[in-house]
Amino acid sequence: MWKKRSRTQFAFDAEKVFLAATQPLAAVYGYFRTTPSGLSSDEVERRQAQYGRNEVEHERRKNPVTMFIRAFINPFIGILTLLIVVSYVLDVWMAAPEEKEWTTILIIATMILLSVIIRFCQDWRASRSSEALRKMVKNTCSVKRAGREVEELPIEELVPGDIVTLAAGDMIPADVRVIETKDLFVSQSSLTGESEPIEKRPDARGRKYVRGSVVELDNICYMGSNVISGSATAIVFGTGDNTYLGTIARAIVGHRAATAFDRGIARVSLLLIRFMLIMVPFVFLVNGITKGDWLEAFIFAVSVAVGLTPEMLPMIVTANLSKGAVAMSRKKVIVKDLNAIQNFGAMNILCTDKTGTLTCDQIVLERYINADGSADDSRRILRHAYFNSFFQTGLKNLMDRAILAHVRELELESMKDDYRKVDEIPFDFTRRRMSVVVEDRTGKRQIVTKGAVEEMLEICSHTEEGGAVRELTPERIATAKAICERMNHQGLRVLAVAHRSFLGKEDNFSVGDERDMVLIGFLAFLDPPKPSAESAIRQLQNYGIEVKVLSGDNDAVVRTVARQVGITGKALTGRELEELEGEELRRAVQEASVFSKVTPLQKTQIITLLQEAQHTVGFLGDGINDAAALRQSDIGISVDSAVDIAKESADIILLEKDLMVLKEGVVEGRRTFGNIVKYIKMTASSNFGNMFSVMAASAFLPFLPMMPIHLLVQNLLYDISQTTIPFDRMDAEYLRKPRKWDASGLSRFMIWIGPISSIFDLTTYLLMWYLFKCQSAEMQALFQSGWFVEGLLSQTLIVHMIRTRKIPFFQSRASWPVMAMTFTIMAFGIVIPFTPFGASIGLVALPWSYFPWLAATLTAYCVLTQAIKNRYVKRFNSWL
């Protein structure tokens, strides 16, 4: 069956799948080289060494050398590298031996290495952090191995030949051949796109398969699909990259769809490159014509290109996202995909289930009563409910666990000893009930069914009243519904219990056997609202997030719980939604806050309609019925205790199912996004302002306003000053609103803010020209030194001016890393002209009389920027 070859040679083998499917049940264990009791420990170890871990590598584990090389691959590094080549040709290769100049090349190379090393470090940290965070979320499966009980093991430990058991809510952990099933329905939508679940059976039902149609095999289940209902035992035959899912994953590795955030970053990059392509030729031509030295003009134009290149952009984005993910993990929020952080901060509607999110997720069996509402001899109701919950092999929900716990507390578990299980009809979300068939020692066989009240009443023809069986008339149905409604309004969830005895059938029971049943009573469960739920919802609303409840539970229960936690909007049921269409349906979905008795398909429909209305929708769910909604939402949120398929479908995992934890994660997402936008707007406006300054200087000065080496050093220092932006804080007001990426306002921001720095660059030109008499070639170095210092300080100050819509330093202060770095760079910039390094690059010591003018210039610059900022905010009602 398996060939001994290295794991890297594995590939999906369709022929192998057909062979696995066509093996007769009598020979299946021998064919797969396993036993009904599973593999021995020694054999498991041998196969793990042969086949490796059961992991599909959606993205290959990143090699540090490859990551370092890839850090060089972005348009800005490409531009700088081209400029190094140009500088080498001009300053070294074509220069005379005594005029060879390596300084420009060294500075550009330093800028490239600084950007690449920081980006590599951030990428490496992000990769390690993401991997560590993902490992915190474990998917497990039930495995039978020789000499051991069935146990829950991480799916990564599976090997070909393992025996696994499957139940509703499980994700298929590998490619498996089913050998025993009970009403097994599997959703393969993640692999085939088909929304309808497919029934799987142990045999091929004599069907003749067309080679190539592997997904249609009745007895094969594929890794990544999930069990909708029923149960099964299966043999693993394909693991990891050697699965059908592994083949698909390899085809899409590295082809992640671009998000709005990705596209926005790309637009900013292209915009800045276009500025450079326009400005550099202009500067070259103007300086060549006015100064007459075309070589010097070209070198200056090259330096301007370097100054306009935001080579830190990729690093800043990566650093912010990775830091945000780590910060969110400290708040018990695990980010599976870094790009999900932006959508998390942009979320303005949160759709959530009820159980465990708004309630304590600690359901207790509060009462059990007869069908007529009496409590006499009601222990018989408990006994039937216990049989139903105990003997089922499917996914036991919270109410099953509550029943089992209650019986355990009463020490009545011996009730099961006189009965044996004959068969079961598993739960599904259409019927909303499940049945078991049991037989006592006398041979009396009966079917016991438990489920939602309305669905149970549909299959009942009689009811018990005072110990006698009566026909279930419309009047008695109304009485039963009234009993349940009273308990619903008390916040109790109600299930009905029914049975049918003296069955002639011996096996192979199906949904069709759930008929003509006798309603015997009701179970009432209490799951009180969380003490923190009302406060958490109020805080989410304060942060601009509307909370909508999407529940499959009873209307009265959902409304009661929603009212108790402060959600008082309009309520709709799934049945009412079915009657609406078109614009009326879209309006109803937006207006309603509470949705009850909705199906999984309706949950997805609600989310889709909200998205069509331009909302960013998050969905919080943990059940198998939530998987489709999690995939459809902009940001799928699940919890560590969720079923496998819910965790797999989610973008973000909460380690604690609490809306307060979610609120903390949203705030961190907005903070991360705000710091990215902050850098983009700083860089774009600064470059736009520099464009005007250089153009004006080039046109009117008889010499270069700054030597190429000065521009390079200035830009290097400015880049260093921005490396701490990911560690900055955001104003509380900014965090209060959802933040969606919108690059359309960037050009407007540049036009308003960019030219401000140019005004003070021009005043510095005039200051140095007229006051300090820098009108001759001999005074050129003083002019250049004056503008070097003013340009660097004003560029660095813009970090503080743009980072907040408030008055910087007074109403809003940057974090200490930003303060320390920016003021260190400013101090360094002032000192450089007085140092040997400054002298080596052509700067000269500035007179002390220059510095009062510098202080006045920078103060005026800050005041004017703040005034323009206030006007901008007033006019456009936005800043970052």
Outline of the structure:
The chain is α/β, with parallel strands linked by helices. 49% of the residues lie in helices and 16% in strands.
Q: How many DSSP H or I helices?
A: 31
Distance between the termini: 61 Å
Q: What would you call the structural class?
A: alpha/beta
Q: If strands are numbered along the chain, what order do they take across the biggest sheet?
A: 8-23-22-21-9-18-20-19
The CATH superfamily label of the largest domain reads: Calcium-transporting ATPase, transmembrane domain
Task: Give the helix level as a range of percent.
Answer: 40-55%
Mean pLDDT, all residues: 80
Predict the CATH topology of the largest domain: Calcium-transporting ATPase, transmembrane domain
What does this structure look like?
There is one protein chain. The longest helix has 42 residues. The protein is elongated. It has four domains: 145 residues, Calcium-transporting ATPase, cytoplasmic transduction domain A (Distorted Sandwich); 274 residues, Calcium-transporting ATPase, transmembrane domain (Up-down Bundle), CATH 1.20.1110; 152 residues, Rossmann fold, CATH 3.40.50.1000; 133 residues, Calcium-transporting ATPase, cytoplasmic domain N (3-Layer(aba) Sandwich), CATH 3.40.1110. The strands form three sheets. Strands 8-23-22-21-9-18-20-19 form an eight-stranded mixed β-sheet, with helices on both faces. Strands 10, 11, 12, 13, 14, 15, 16 and 17 form an eight-stranded mixed β-sheet that branches. Strands 1, 2, 3, 4, 5, 6 and 7 form a seven-stranded antiparallel β-sheet that branches. The chain contains 31 helices and 23 strands. The chain is of the alpha/beta class and 880 residues long. The two termini are 61 Å apart. Strand 14 and strand 15 form a beta hairpin.
